[in-house]
Every structure is written in C-alpha cells, then in structure tokens.
Specification:
This protein is an alpha+beta fold. The protein contains 8 helices and 11 strands. α5 crosses α8, α6 runs antiparallel to α7 and α7 packs across α8.
Length: 302
Amino acid sequence: MEREPQISMTVEDYDAAMDSDCESSVVPQFGDFARVEVDQPKYGVVEKMFRAGLGVLGEGVNVVALHMNSSSSIARHARLEAFRLYARAVAVKRGGDANIRYAWYGGARDEILGIVTHGFGRCSDFEDRVSNGIGIYLSPANFPIDCAMRAKEDEFGVKHLLLCRVILGNTEKIATGSRQFQPSSADFDSGVDNPFSPLQYTIWSAYMNSHIFPLFIISFTAPSLSVSGTSKFPNSPRVEFSVLMNVLSRFLSPSQMTLILKCYNDFQEKKIGRPHLITRWRSLVGDKLLLLAIRMCGFRPT
C-alpha cells in the first residue's frame, strides 16, 4: 500500500483558534470551519494531496476554497476530546497502534454542513451490488476519486469533500454486497474492501462520531468528473491493455487474473469488441480498482 501523505499537523494542532474571513457567494460558510488562504502552507499541502490522488482524472479540477476546523467552540472541543479518548482506547486494545489515517468523505453541501455542525447522522446504504456494509464510507488519502465522484454539485456547480482523521484499529474485509453493520467480532474495529490496498474504509454507525474527526473541507469544480458518478477519461496518450493488466495483477488473485486474461484473449481473437471487453473488466474488477489501475498507469487504456 502506498505510504500515506504526511501533513505537518495532528489533531493536537487544533487547540489554536483561527479567525475566519468573509466568504464569497459561491462558497458557503461551514460552521466551525474557517477559510484557509491560498498562501498558507496548509492550503498547499491539502490541495497537493487532493490533486495527487486524482491523477490524470483530475484534469480541469479547480479548487475553489479550503476550510479548516479551527473554532474554539465547546462542541468542537468535545468532539476533539472524544476522538482523542477513543484513539487512546483503541491503541491500548490493539497493542499500542490505533491505526489512524487520513481519509476523504464526499456528499452534498448541506450534508457536509450538517456533519461539521452536528456530526454524522446517517450511514451509507448503497445498492447491494456496490455496498461494502452499512456504515460511513470514506476513501484513503491517496484515492479521493470515489468520494469526488460521489459528491454532489451545489447550485453553483461546486463539490465539497471532507478530509478527516479516522481511527481504523484492526480492519476486516467486507465483501461487496454485504449488509454487515457492525464488527464481525471483538477482534475488529472497521472494514475495508481490500486488506492489502484498500480503496474504501467502512466505519460502523456505533463509531461514526467517535472514530472520525473532520479536519478540512475542500471545495472544487470538476468538469472531468461527471455528475452521474462516472469518469470521463482525459484526452491523453494511450497505454496498452497489457500494461494495465500488469498493474491489475498487483491487486487481483490468480483466479481473477485468469478471467481478465481470458477476456483479453477473446478481444484479441475478435470474439468480442472493445466496449464488451471494458464492460467485462468493469464487472470483474469493479470501477474503483479499475480507475486506480488506470491512474497508476497515468493514461487511459487502448
């Protein structure tokens, strides 16, 4: 798994309050979150993490604003203290490591505002074919694509993502289509779609307001990411399917790769066309992993 990008701060840094500035008509105010100016170091670090995670799929993305959790309100201190207490408790339970990570969360503007004001109020419950348990879905710091596509544009065409600190503890694999809503045993704290290279974290409802601490809201426009939740590949040099298969082999089992190779052989032998090949690969691999593999290649498949 890729090393998590480092931001030169921890939740301890949020004891210092920061004055908020006037907001434009395009970017709403977000409760306890104050505007971070472009020339501030934190702005550059978060923006760089976001763009690096999008890769070539982020062509044309424009970051409109960044807000940071910096208010000294009683409610904010209570949430921060709860996060610290649970982090220490999980660390004790798991041999000294609470497995705290950065993670993204995407939603509608009003949902994001509700989360930063009152906390998470409901769990993600997607269709069986795409769900990974019933909980709060977040994406790793190096893979904001899924959340960016899930985020909904507001009336100004702007999308909003939360960058959070998340207590993962011990993770367990949650199969696609699972209706699981809590740890399968006392040995686990959270879920992942892939234990080796996770593209999605599942935080159970019992932990959603103790194991997730929102740090930033990044607001952006993304013409390269459609509202419908599908990605439009940029006009860029193409990469061979064989290169893409080599990347996929890092994540898939031998049996899965056998099916991928069979589809490709059928394509080479003209038994199926290119659209049919891609449809089969999407079904076998899943859009999230396929997009990650394409991003790792740096281009779109031929």
